Amino acid sequence: MAHLLVIGASRGIGLETVRAALAAGHRVRAFARSASRIDLPGPNLERFPGDALNGCDIGAALDGIDAVVQALGVPVRDLIGPVRLFSEATGILVPAMEKTGVRRLIAVTGFGAGDSRDVIGPLQRLPFRLVFGRAYDDKDAQEIRIRRSRLDWTLVRPGVLTGGAATGCYRVLDDPASWRNGLIARADVAHFLVAQVADAGRIGKAVVLIDRALPL
């Protein structure tokens, strides 16, 4: 079993990843500013309060770690202004991982980041840009920084996130020709992320995750 660092562990996909990793038997270091409030049981959970934009916090959190899941998010209220969290946090994390020798990085971005932007359907394109444009411009920069690294990375681009339990019936779209937007439960995204810790088959690749497809 691996010793896994989850960055952005207090909510959303990050919290679901902590839950899934513990269920799979991994040791988990849950990193977030509000990590002390994570209400999950188990001796394999270490709550690690820290700031993803603080190099000292990130460096300390990487000690003894086998793999990193980066699952950052920003509140909806922050989407109306400039968004820099994804690129700036990645600009701290990547060199810290390279320095400490932690090679495996599984980073959550989203459908519409990087080259998946080209396949956003015409009905979705305008509202997507109006609501999420600033965040996804920053996710583009995040992905570029990861791609240029020496790490064993995988970029994970989920579609529109939903709540609820994991279904295990989601689709992993590896081929760019198959990429399209869809719905997927956060718990299913977490299931996929944890599976990648021990799976080298998608190192150096970007995948889209969906359950049900949305209209183009």
Would you give an account of this structure?
With 216 residues, the chain is α/β, with parallel strands linked by helices. It has one domain: NAD(P)-binding Rossmann-like Domain (Rossmann fold). The protein has helices spanning 12-23, 55-61, 85-100, 122-147, 186-196; strands at residues 3-7, 27-32, 45-49, 67-70, 104-108, 152-158, 160-162, 171-173, 182-185, 205-210, 212-213. The strands form two sheets. Strands 3-2-1-4-5-6-10-8 form an eight-stranded mixed sheet, with helices on both faces. A three-stranded mixed sheet has the order 7-9-11. Helix 4 (122-147) links the parallel strand 5 (104-108) and strand 6. Helix 1 crosses helix 5. The radius of gyration is 16 Å and the shape is globular. The mean pLDDT is 92. Residues 8-199 form the NAD(P)-binding domain.
Give keywords.
Rossmann fold, alpha/beta, eight-stranded mixed β-sheet, 23% strand, 216 residues, 11 strands, 5 helices, 33% helix, three-stranded mixed β-sheet
Oligomeric state of the chains in view: single chain
Task: State the CATH superfamily name.
Answer: NAD(P)-binding Rossmann-like Domain
Q: What is the fold-level CATH name, i.e. the topology?
A: Rossmann fold
Specify the biggest β-sheet.
8 strands, mixed
* Count of individual beta strands: 11
What's the helix count?
Answer: 5
Protein name: Epimerase
Organism: Methylobacterium radiodurans
Domain NAD(P)-binding: 8-199
InterPro entries: NAD(P)-bd_dom, NAD(P)-bd_dom_sf
